[in-house]
């Protein structure tokens, strides 16, 4: 279990207070986009805890709206096969309400039912959720696209709690930000503007080919004093294979792919002037920190920016022709077929950096 974090409540209370646990078993971005729900519940006076995989749970540390953060592995090391252990540990904490924002695999529903928690709300639960006695909410996707954080706030509405806005929460300490600032100065000492490029998306959405991100970086480096940070997980290092050695060796390029912890990544993103990032978890870290993003997006629901876009900072979106996307939607995720040229992205990035409205 991660250490409990202090909470300072403000706003109106919604009596009576309840012990609520939110359990997510899926992706980083979805977890970050659930934090507006956490904030709404906490400000209504409820005791709120969160259970998430150990790989993503650290991003919830320091959140003032959470009473405790737990790793799923601490509750059930062999989940999902050993879901009864999860049920027993949930029962021991005597929660009043459990929220399952993405009720898959079905073992989550089984554990929630066996936990004895009296109120159980779930989304994307299907017939197993109804069969096991959960109140099942509907997202309305893909027919009615709306911000994902707004979808998560349907849980608050179902509990009679008012929204407190859509911007996600990722709370960083002053020492984390100072360390990230020093690290950037060390790697990019002569750069007055810093652009992050995150070429990966774990296959969850349409994305540009890796070579296009390399071409984008080459275009950006024509601007004197501009530095580039490359971000990504260790598994995404092969995405840099198309990059030339000269480009990666530039003194104005810091290859941080696979080199940062999750919280170090968030603190680094916080220091960027602009982040070029597709629809993936780090985009929502930028949103939580109010950082400007430039993102290639499919215009089709449920992959579009209307659902997954930046709600906390300036959001620049590049999309291909919607008609072309509609024709090839049946093929699944694509690489935009050259319809978002790197030179066009570079021009958008530089125009933003040169804009008088740019706070940096």
Q: Can you offer a commentary on this structure?
A:
The protein has 360 residues and is α/β, with parallel strands linked by helices. It folds into 2 domains: 140 residues, Rossmann fold (3-Layer(aba) Sandwich); 181 residues, Glycogen Phosphorylase B (Rossmann fold, 3-Layer(aba) Sandwich). Helix content is 34%, strand content 14%. The chain is built from 16 helices and 12 strands. It has a 6-stranded parallel β-sheet, sandwiched between helices. It has a 6-stranded parallel β-sheet with strand order 9-8-7-10-11-12, with helices on both faces. The radius of gyration is 21 Å and the shape is globular. The N terminus is likely disordered.
Number of helices: 16
The CATH homologous superfamily of the largest domain corresponds to Glycogen Phosphorylase B
Mean pLDDT level: 93
- Please tell me how large the radius of gyration is: 21 Å
Q: Which sequence of SSEs, written as H and E, runs from N to C?
A: EHHEEHHEHEHEHHHEHEHEHEHEHEHH
Query: What is the 3D form?
Result: globular
Oligomer: single chain
Low-confidence stretches: 3-14
Whole-number total of structural domains: 2
* The CATH top-level class label of the largest domain: Alpha Beta
The CATH topology of the largest domain corresponds to Rossmann fold
Q: What class, by secondary structure content?
A: alpha/beta
Largest sheet properties: 6 strands, parallel
**Residues in helix, %:** 25-40%
Distance from N terminus to C terminus (CA atoms, Å) equals 39 Å
Strand order of the largest sheet: 3-2-1-4-5-6
């Amino acid at each position: 279990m991660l250490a409990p974090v202090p909470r300072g409540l403000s706003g109106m209370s919604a009596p009576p207070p309840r012990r609520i646990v939110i359990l997510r078993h899926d992706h980083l971005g979805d977890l970050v986009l659930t934090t507006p729900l956490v904030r709404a519940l906490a400000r209504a006076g409820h005791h709120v805890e969160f259970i998430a995989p150990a790989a993503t749970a650290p991003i919830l540390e320091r959140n003032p709206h959470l009473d405790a953060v737990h790793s799923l592995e601490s509750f059930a090391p062999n989940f999902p096969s050993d879901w009864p252990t999860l049920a027993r540990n949930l029962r021991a904490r005597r929660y009043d309400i459990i929220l399952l924002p993405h009720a898959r695999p079905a073992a989550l529903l089984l554990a929630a039912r066996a936990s004895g928690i009296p109120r159980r709300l779930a989304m994307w639960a299907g017939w197993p959720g109804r069969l096991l006695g959960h109140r099942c909410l509907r997202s309305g996707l893909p027919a009615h696209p709306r911000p994902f954080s707004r979808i998560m706030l349907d849980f608050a509405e179902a509990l009679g709690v008012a929204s407190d806005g859509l911007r996600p929460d990722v709370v960083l300490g002053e020492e984390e930000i100072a360390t990230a600032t020093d690290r950037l100065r060390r790697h990019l000492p002569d750069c007055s503007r810093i652009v992050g490029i995150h070429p990966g998306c774990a296959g969850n959405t349409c994305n540009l080919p890796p070579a296009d991100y390399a071409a984008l970086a080459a275009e950006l480096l024509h601007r004197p004093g501009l530095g580039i940070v490359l971000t990504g997980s260790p598994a995404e290092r092969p995405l840099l294979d198309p990059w030339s050695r000269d480009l990666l060796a530039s003194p104005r390029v810091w290859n941080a792919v696979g080199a940062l912890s999750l919280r170090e990544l968030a603190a680094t993103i916080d220091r960027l002037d602009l982040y070029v990032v597709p629809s993936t978890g780090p985009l929502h870290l930028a949103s939580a920190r109010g950082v400007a993003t430039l993102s290639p997006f499919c215009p089709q629901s449920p992959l579009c920016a209307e659902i997954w876009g930046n709600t906390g900072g300036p959001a620049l979106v590049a999309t291909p022709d919607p008609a072309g996307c509609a024709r090839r939607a049946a093929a699944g995720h694509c690489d935009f077929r050259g319809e978002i040229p790197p030179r066009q992205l570079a021009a958008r990035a530089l125009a933003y950096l040169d804009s008088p409205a740019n706070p940096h």
